[in-house]
Every structure is written in structure tokens, then in C-alpha cells.
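Page 37, continued from 36.
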């Protein structure tokens, strides 16, 4: 039994053979209509008009169906996913280019606004200096007149 346990970790295959409760023989078929495991005698009596197969045949058919399904997934679904990934990569690149373009537009607008503000600032400074010079001239004139009056 120890050698069997190493070779078959879940026990020997014979330990897992399910017996038919009605006929006490191994279950070796499946009734596709009832979706039940049955023995050969059940297939000929209770399930004689049903679609039944041996477990080997049913397993082979299901394995083939699964392989076809996996092939479809590999060929169609994964290809579709690859196409979507490629589209997303292109969209990401386009978004990046669009963003960079918008940033450049904003920078140009910002630079134009700053240039205008600097020019406005220069004009105001010049106006203030000119006004200061005029006021100083006026005050100097008044001061000089006052000094003349004082001397007189």
C-alpha cells in the first residue's frame, strides 16, 4: 500500500471506481440526456432510449470541445485583445501629442500676456516718472517763488 500511495497520491484507480447501486457492477457510461453516470445494464434497461456513451468516449468528446474552445480563445479572443491593446497604445500616443500641443499653445498665450503686462508696466512707470518730474518742476517753481518772496 505504501508503494501504491507514492505512485498514486489519491489512492489506486481501483479504489475510486464507483459501483452501480442497482446492478453492483462498475459505472462505465454516462447518460447524456439525464447527465448521470450509469453502468452498461442501466444503459440497456432504464436508459435504453437515451443518448449514452462510454466514459472514455464522453471524456474524449468533451476534451475535444475544450480544445476547440481554447483554440478559439487563442486565435480570436487573444487576437482581439492584442488589437485593443495596440489601439490603446496609439490612443495614448495621440493623447500625449495633443497634450503637448495644448501646453505649447498655453505657453505662447502666457508669454504674450506677460509681454503685454511688461509693456503696460513700462508705460505706467514712464507715466509716473514723467508726472513726478512735472510735479517736481512745479514744486521747484513754487519753492523758488517762495524763496524770492522771502528775500524780498
Amino acid at each position: 500500500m505504501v508503494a501504491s500511495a507514492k505512485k498514486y497520491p489519491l489512492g489506486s484507480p481501483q479504489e475510486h471506481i464507483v459501483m452501480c447501486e442497482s446492478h453492483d457492477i462498475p459505472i462505465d457510461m454516462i447518460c447524456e440526456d439525464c447527465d448521470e453516470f450509469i453502468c452498461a445494464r442501466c444503459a440497456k434497461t432504464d436508459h435504453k432510449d437515451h443518448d449514452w456513451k462510454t466514459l472514455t468516449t464522453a471524456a474524449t468528446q468533451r476534451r475535444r470541445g475544450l480544445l476547440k474552445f481554447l483554440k478559439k480563445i487563442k486565435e480570436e479572443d487573444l487576437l482581439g485583445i492584442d488589437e485593443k491593446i495596440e489601439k490603446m497604445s496609439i490612443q495614448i500616443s495621440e493623447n500625449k501629442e495633443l497634450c503637448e500641443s495644448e501646453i505649447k499653445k498655453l505657453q505662447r498665450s502666457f508669454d504674450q500676456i506677460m509681454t503685454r503686462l511688461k509693456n503696460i508696466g513700462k508705460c505706467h512707470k514712464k507715466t509716473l516718472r514723467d508726472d513726478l518730474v512735472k510735479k517736481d518742476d512745479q514744486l521747484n517753481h513754487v519753492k523758488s517763488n517762495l524763496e524770492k518772496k522771502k528775500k524780498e
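The beta strands are 29-31, 36-38, 52-54. Flag for discussion at group meeting. The chain has three helices and three strands.
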